[in-house]
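Batch manifest, entry 17 of 40.
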Amino acid sequence: QVQLVESGGGLVQGGGSLRLSCAGSVRTFSNRAIGWFRQAPGKEREFVARINWSGGTYYADSVKGRFTVSRDNAQNMAYLQMNSLKPEDTAVYYCNGGWSTGVYWGQGTQVTVSS
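Output type: structure tokens
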């Protein structure tokens, strides 16, 4: 059973930084693309960033230049470094990945950016 667990959220002032972590429970985590999404209150879940198994990265325009996605395949971990945070980045952040048995999501971690 694939499990993804996010951590690292919290309350931060505008302009601050946070690093989110996504821990995978299976060894095959290392050969799967991992995505980061977020959902603000009253809004749909939106794509934030993605990292391929080989390290290729993609970002939403709204976070490009401020957020960096990375991974440590030996530890079955993925990370989202968020710098220059803005109040509009406030949301619950989720990681996800696709396996042959389906697409799996973590439970989410709350990020709140104060102005």
